[in-house]
Amino acid sequence: DALHTLLDRTGFDAARDRLWLTGDLVNRGDQSLATLRFVRGLGDAARCVLGNHDIHLLMVAGRHASAHRGDTLGDVLDAPDRDELLGWLRQQPLLYREGRHVMVHAGLLPEWTLEEAETLADEAHRALRDDFDSLAGTLYGNQPERWDPALRGRDRIRFIVNVFTRMRVCHPDGRLDLTHKGLHEKRPAGTEAWFDLPHRHGDATVLCGHWSALGLLMRPGLAALDTGCLWGGWLTALRLEDGAVFQVRGAAQRPL
Fold it and tell me: The pTM is what?
């Protein structure tokens, strides 16, 4: 409901405009099924990247993981068109780029160039799309914590997926800390937000979500857009042509 209200406010027209979504289409409220059907129905008018909750749905649907208390995935799992929706979701990339705008769910590893990030995102996307069931048993986990081009197999794919769908903070030497989910100022000692570390992304503007406790953060090279709709915060849209921001308040569905 909040998404439709927000799109009405922006004047979105699927025949003319394109809607970019930074992932987590599901499990962020009790309308996961309706959201999936709507976005899939937009066809070429929508561009979406996978978020960690989207991957969690695929894991639960394939019986590779158990549902968590508070998950709101049941309507998708019981839907008559679940296979079509899950198949569509598995087709979604981890990174989408157009010109200088780069969309990911969580972030870009500071040490990767943009070209490296695109190549690695495509590698992991193809693995998830084509071989999800064989990867799923080892997809979850926080190791390895540091990138090494020599990584191979499941460790390599797990690290890449963790960067694009789970990362919030890193150590200056590039090690990920995937335990932190809270406020920026309460991040673990010795870590920095991934976007505050020296990076090799050139003049690209990274569009991301994931870190709802961060709130709206817009500065050169970054637009972090998750503003906590699930928790009674805002659902936020950024119009890329002119930088206009649109927001609608969400109805809190989970306590803070």
Answer: 0.96
